[in-house]
Amino acid sequence: MSDIENALETLTARIGESNSPSEWFEITQERINDFADVTMDHQWIHVDPERAKAGPFGTAIAHGQLSLSIMNFLPRKDTTEKLPQLPGQKLTINYGFDRVRFPSPIPVGSMVRTTSTLKRAEIKGTMIETMNEVVLEVQGSEKPAVVAESVGRLVF
Length: 156
Description:
The structure is a single chain. The two termini are 14 Å apart. The chain has one domain (3-155): Hotdog Thioesterase (Thiol Ester Dehydrase, Chain A). The protein is elongated, with a radius of gyration of 18 Å. The protein has 156 residues and is an alpha+beta fold. It has helices spanning 3-12, 29-39, 44-47, 49-52, 64-70; strands at residues 25-26, 91-101, 111-124, 127-138, 146-155. 23% of the residues lie in helices and 31% in strands.
């Protein structure tokens, strides 16, 4: 069996498994402002805390794109928990998203964390395409801030 076929077998056995939640991570006003500078999105609801107090959320909130950008990179509680070693794999690339929703805002100063569940793995040419459902939760909130189907490609 080839490396890519072995890898697919390994991943297929993990479909439906969720990893443990990442560590809690604070969304600061400084991080929001830095993201606004990089993306040129300086809407007041994100970068003007005083004005945002009178807005619909009563405080400044993180950009939806900021939450989407960081959710796959939040530090894991247990750094030994990783995808299985896949012989022959050269790298992983972000291929995009099948679906993204922002059910609730992330107020400045919130603590967030993610969990991820492998939903799909299939060979696409010389790569394996995976889809993980990633949920970003806000500490103390019943609704998640982001639910996204993240698609990656493992290059062999």
